[in-house]
Amino acid sequence: MKKRRINALDLIQRIEKLARERVTSQEVVAIDAYRTLKNRFNPKVILVIEDDENMQKLMARIFPDNEGFEVRMASDGTALTSILDEITPDIILMDIGLPWINGYELTELIKSHREMKHIPIVMVSGHTQEEDIKRAFQVGADEFIQKPFDIEQLKQTVTRLLKLQDR
Q: Angle at which helices 77-86 and 103-112 pack, to 10 degrees?
């Protein structure tokens, strides 16, 4: 029995017509709704290494979940180890005056680690003498923000560094 060649042109045209009808009948999603969904399912992880509980709470309010952030807290270097078992942060906000291992030492350790050296670190500290700021950059900090800080400046700095990471 000889196989008959199928003329699929008619079928292709019908499929394309039905697909066009369905696509054009779909509700258009606003870009803000899309961003909200994207942020909810793919948040940027901000690791805050800060021993002051009030400052931790403030950081969590500055970078809320509904804006696409997941804020994780570590009060010192020892708490950091258990967090790094669970997640890889997209950015780190680091205080200098930490117990046990200070922010300079932690930054140096993170920046010397081959899998973490690409993570931007923003020193957020009340240690604001010229030598403090110089040392922060010497050990690998990407930015330094002085406490007390302007909330908008912090948000802009974090947003800018995260955009650079996405490239």
A: 30
Domain ranges of the chain: 43-166
- pTM value? 0.76
* Residue 158: exposure state from Cβ atoms within 10 A (0-12, 13-18, ≥19): buried
Two tokens, residue 63: 């970078």
Residue 12 burial (C-beta neighbours within 10 Å; 0-12, 13-18, 19+): exposed
Q: Identify the architecture of domain 43-166 in CATH.
A: 3-Layer(aba) Sandwich (3.40)
- The token pair at 46 is 């901000």
CA 6 to chain centre: 53
User: Tens digit of pLDDT for each residue in 123-167?
Assistant: 999 998 999 999 999 999 999 999 999 999 999 999 999 988 776
Q: Quick one: tokens of 91?
A: 């950015």
